[in-house]
């Protein structure tokens, strides 16, 4: 299997909704199930959605996508971008357990690591106090907030005003929508692993179309449109880190729902994990419908396992969807993308 990295740049900003009430909050990442849904909608406009879903739902999906994470320039990194990888939820191996007592709170606050530090975290070789300090120092350069003017930081969140009109009285109510803006040279990156390289050109076409359609919310106002930079071999971007590694643990870089055949192995395979509920409205092609899809609980990015687990697609079609005019089934991706 060949692994590639790609960059997405959002020139006008984006709104990546979070669970809860209101649109004021916006995330800086896109989970893999949302990304796959957007790509399938792009394939639907090309008349290829049924084939794509059939292949992704099979025993050997032709490609598996990670979630989207931030990338941006480093203060001392020249033109070479830095990549933020979710911190593994497991504790790092240390020479002295007292190190975790002293540094535990700071480590828990750390959201991202550089790729090389993720491998150090997973390879099982004990880390010294100096190693942990070096890792924490490198994390300070990742996904930094940007004030919109300086050359420091990657992204900034602003609130954009909106007005709602009452249908009966025409009374107005102001509300706010959160928008994330990325500075020049920053954006989101993703990883894709191909079992069948003949799908690479087709996925490139779908991503370019999705770039025109937009990703996330508030697409009516132009948010979420992006420039797709093409697929780059991971070994050309991350060097030796992009090649197969001999490690005893793997970190999850996507949402994951276990396949039926994997359920019995979860207890002995997972060493650290967290879960999140995926829910929302059905989107078909370019149209959002007033139908809520079924909820599904997924393992989240950063979960750690002793072997890579495949996962599956989940049917989240609303109970009475066909009777309410929904012409197709609705699926959510729980295919696991594990690193390394």
UniProtKB/TrEMBL annotation:
GO terms for biological process: defense response to virus. Residues 249-340 form the Csm4 C-terminal domain. One of its GO terms (molecular function) is RNA binding. The keyword Metal-binding does not apply. Keywords: Antiviral defense, RNA-binding. InterPro entries: Csm4, Csm4_C. Belongs to the CRISPR-associated Csm4 family. This is CRISPR system Cms protein Csm4. It comes from Desulfacinum infernum. The lineage of its organism: Bacteria, Pseudomonadati, Thermodesulfobacteriota, Syntrophobacteria, Syntrophobacterales.
